[in-house]
């Protein structure tokens, strides 16, 4: 069959949702049934739940960056770049390649899986001074930054500077923020042994959240256990508190406290990728409103899933419930969307997405963890075994599994060397630079660009 006549399936985003979708399409579709193209800025799938372990140096960045090309059935065309707009009428996706070239990619079916970005608020100084924990570059940057604070405090004779460099603030008491604070506190606690001039008592971690509880999904008892572990480790947890103002050398909390610090890590939730807004379609709290089959109503061949879509949570059985933005849903939605794309291609019936949440695992570093698999509450080593076992088995390739296991063993036996690499040390680290949130077009700009390229709107 001629290439031109084959239906074109375009998948946007190589995360949990996009990669599971592509792998399923490669496995189930005959090569002459359709062409599959994947748009992704990076050549890997990032295993985000283990990001705090990269920041704390337990894992190397490479071990959680899974190759997109390591698959026996691999045949997808990969466009290295990011989608910056979609024209649903003309069926064109506008892409900015990694060399900043803008290209129009036509499709017959589009699967939108660009995930989410860090949610920010209109707080003075926040976007200029906070780091996020959403990308591999951010995790590696934060690790270097935290170690550099110890180096600079050690070299300084100014007590005020020392105190400021040794205070760290994490905002967000969800699993991402809690794990980040816990893992990085372990890093500084262990690293300070190598700095005999520094008083370990000066190191102070703050974890704050505007909500009244940490990780409410865990339930009251397990949430309190997590909080107790953090307090025991010297992390000051403040609930019902947020940030009023952020500066380069201090952060002001909403309860009036002013904390001298050079480190503000912002993990207060996520919001759908800005790509979704370029569609001009209906959204639910920023996520694209889709059916249980993950289709966009009124637009044939448009599918969306993962963190960027509000997929009805049929397993909950509540009117209006949508699936939470988690990897366990994104992966399974990826496979179901692939089945639905194939069903559409073959003129068969699509199936709705239904998955009952399996629970939550929270790795607080070392032997500390809390987990709630299938509703069973676990603490300490059993919880840690479940957390690590779950993540390990969810890594897609055997090579990644081996890398992660080797890293865990090496770290348990030999510890960390606390090496500061110096990469990007002189570059300001703003959220938008890591997450490229200012790259997107408005719906009007998308239309103008598509029309300017001579592509008709039907
Ligand atoms: C620190 C942390 C810990 C977490 N821990 C857990 C956990 O323990 N359990 C759990 O279930 N979930 C966890 N999550 C949430 C989970 O990682 C997300 O819900 C999941 O990654 C969503 O999958 P996704 O495919 O929708 O998005 P992602 O996995 O984020 O993938 C989106 C992909 O799209 C790419 N992309 C973005 N914009 C564009 C664009 N414009 N064009 C092309 N490509 C684009 C991105 O580079 C990325 O590769 C955690 C998240 C974080 C940040």
Explain what the structure shows.
Residues 8-334 form the FAD/NAD(P)-binding domain. GO terms for molecular function: oxidoreductase activity. This is NAD(P)/FAD-dependent oxidoreductase. InterPro entries: FAD/NAD-bd_sf, FAD/NAD-binding_dom, NDH-2. The chain has helices at 16-28, 51-55, 126-129, 136-155, 159-165, 175-191, 220-232, 327-345, 380-394, 398-414, 431-435, 443-452, and strands spanning 8-12, 35-40, 44-46, 65-67, 77-87, 92-97, 102-106, 109-112, 116-118, 130-131, 167-171, 204-209, 235-239, 243-246, 250-253, 258-260, 264-266, 270-272, 283-284, 287-289, 302-304, 309-310, 359-363, 369-373, 378-379. The protein is α/β, with parallel strands linked by helices. It has two domains: 3-118 and 271-357 and 435-452, FAD/NAD(P)-binding domain (3-Layer(bba) Sandwich); 120-268, FAD/NAD(P)-binding domain (3-Layer(bba) Sandwich). The strands form seven sheets. The protein has a seven-stranded mixed β-sheet with strand order 7-6-5-2-1-8-21. A hairpin with a 4-residue loop joins strand 6 and strand 7. Helix 1 packs parallel to helix 8 (327-345) and helix 4 (136-155) packs antiparallel against helix 5. It is globular, with a radius of gyration of 23 Å. The mean pLDDT is 94. Flavin-adenine dinucleotide binds at residues 12-18, 39-42, 46, 48-49, 51-52, 82-83, 113-115, 133-134, 175-176, 273, 275, 306-308, 325-328, 330, 361.
């Amino acid at each position: 069959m001629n290439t031109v006549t084959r239906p074109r399936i375009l998948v946007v985003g190589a995360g949990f949702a996009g990669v599971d979708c592509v792998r399923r399409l490669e496995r189930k579709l005959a090569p002459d049934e359709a062409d599959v193209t994947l748009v992704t800025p990076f050549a890997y799938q990032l295993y985000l739940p283990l990001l705090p372990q990269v920041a704390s140096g337990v894992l190397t960045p490479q071990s959680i960056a899974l190759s997109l090309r390591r698959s026996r059935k691999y045949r997808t065309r990969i466009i290295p770049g990011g989608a910056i707009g979609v024209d649903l009428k003309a069926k064109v996706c506008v892409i900015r390649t990694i060399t900043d070239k803008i290209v129009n990619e036509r499709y017959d079916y589009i699967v939108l899986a660009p995930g989410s970005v860090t949610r920010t608020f209109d707080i003075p100084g926040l976007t200029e001074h906070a780091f996020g924990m959403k990308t591999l570059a951010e995790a590696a940057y934060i690790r270097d930054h935290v170690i550099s604070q110890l180096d600079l405090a050690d070299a300084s004779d100014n007590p005020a500077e020392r105190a400021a460099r040794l205070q760290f603030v994490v905002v967000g008491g969800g699993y991402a923020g809690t794990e980040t604070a816990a893992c990085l506190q372990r890093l500084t606690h262990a690293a300070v042994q190598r700095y005999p001039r520094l008083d370990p008592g000066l190191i102070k971690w703050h974890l704050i959240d505007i909500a009244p509880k940490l990780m409410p999904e865990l339930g009251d008892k397990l949430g309190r256990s997590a909080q107790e572990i953090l307090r025991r480790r010297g992390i000051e947890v403040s609930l019902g508190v947020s940030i009023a103002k952020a500066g380069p050398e201090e952060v002001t909390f909403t309860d009036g406290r002013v904390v001298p610090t050079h480190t503000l890590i912002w993990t207060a939730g996520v919001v759908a990728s800005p790509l979704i807004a370029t569609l001009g379609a209906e959204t639910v709290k920023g996520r694209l409103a889709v059916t249980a089959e993950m289709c966009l109503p009124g637009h044939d061949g448009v599918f969306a899933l993962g963190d960027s879509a509000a997929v009805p949570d049929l397993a909950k059985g509540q009117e209006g419930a949508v699936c939470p933005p988690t990897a366990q849903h994104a992966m399974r939605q990826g496979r179901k969307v692939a089945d639905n794309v194939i069903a559409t291609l073959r003129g068969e019936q699509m199936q709705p997405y239904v998955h009952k949440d399996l629970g939550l695992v929270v790795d607080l570093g070392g032997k500390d963890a809390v987990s709630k698999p299938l509703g069973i509450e676990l603490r300490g080593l059993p919880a840690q075994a479940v957390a690590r076992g779950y993540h390990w088995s969810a890594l897609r390739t055997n090579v990644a599994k081996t890398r992660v296991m080797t890293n865990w063993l090496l770290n348990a036996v030999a510890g960390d060397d606390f090496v500061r690499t110096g990469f990007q040390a002189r570059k300001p680290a703003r959220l938008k630079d890591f997450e490229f949130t200012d790259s997107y077009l408005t719906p009007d700009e998308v239309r103008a660009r598509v029309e300017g390229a001579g592509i008709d709107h039907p």
